[in-house]
Amino acid sequence: MATIQFQLSKSKKATEKIVYVRLFHSKELDQWVSTKIKVNPAHWSNRQQLIKPQYDQKGQNAVFIGLKRYLEDNLSKIISYSEVGKGWLKQAVNSYFEGKPFEYSVGKATISRKRTNTSLFEYIEDFIQQSQNAINPRTGKPLNKIVIGDYIRTFNLLKEYSRSKRTKLDFEDINLEFYSKFVAYLQKKNYSANTVGKFIKNLKVFLNKATEEGINTNLAYKSHRFVKIQVDTDNIALTENELKQLDDLDLSNKPYLERVRDLFLVGCWTGLRFGDLTNITPDKIQDGFINIVQSKTGDRVIIPLHSVVEKILAKYNGNLPPAISNQKTNQYLKEIGKLAGLNDTITLTTIKGGKKQAETYQKWQLIKTHTARRSFATNLYKAGFPSHSIMRITGHKSESSFLKYIKVSPQEHAQLLAEFWAKRMNI
After folding, report:
1. Is the entire prediction scored with pTM above 0.90?
2. Do residues 188 and 182 make contact, with C-beta atoms less than 8 angstroms apart?
């Protein structure tokens, strides 16, 4: 059986070497063709025949994987390797990169090997259908329903955009001109910058998969200008004093609010996501620690029980209060925050429709389930607890993303520095 390999050029002087694709079956069939892609040898894995993942900033591994599948697909249609002429590999590689029908000659006959005629929308529809039963490789669990829902929303917006332009959108249409127009279309629909970025990210997920499978050969979406838009968000965190205000609030006459408040406080003192809170059962609490595998990342975390959490567990006989829908919880949290008097004025700057706008709120209006997790991380950081230890619980992979996540004002940073200096002077 013929094999497809990727190897670097033999040049000893070049700091970057060209990646060659090799088709080998026997002495009679051993062809080499340049992919014209250059790689630093230190970044190349000879065993995997790919760029080491940490250096694949341009997504070139997807090109190699897609090319290999494309060649294997066309080889599988050949009855005998004697059909493969000297120029077969070169023509096949050129056809892949140009996105043209693949034709080669056998004697006097010309055989056409066309790229699958699956359209962009047909591919995305099939991708989403398969996602319903897909397993997240990081967690070994079914793909998160929220992720699948975001895929569906992205697909619906692509179809809406296509209808609005009265044009049929396909793989070859996804270029920088499309990117600019699609982003403008989403901005006119008043989506925030980060939401627009999420839709672009999902589109790139579809295209990366199609490229890997040899279905898409248009790589314009890999341009550094075809970017996922992302801006820092002005979400809030509650201070420890504000958490005490919530804890001290008498809600005995409104038990539905009391249960929501108690579960929220557990989140504030554990840093767990709302979905993970609902998975805490007595068997996951041992010797004063919560031991749980996080549903989103598949990482195991062990968290000591804070006195507030211990009090709530005792209140519900070793269990946590039952959870209700995320939407209802967010609604009730605002009501609870208002009753607790969390009335500080907060001005948030957002980007909608491509324009910055400032809006003023009272703090209780901005409380939601995720506020608990952000409050946990922020309060520990302000207390001087090591960032890397907090990150082990929150799941942040880099300190830069963690520091963007927490809510510490410039004034609070200055206060932390002043306290640090004061401690140093007292040593």
Report:
1. no
2. no
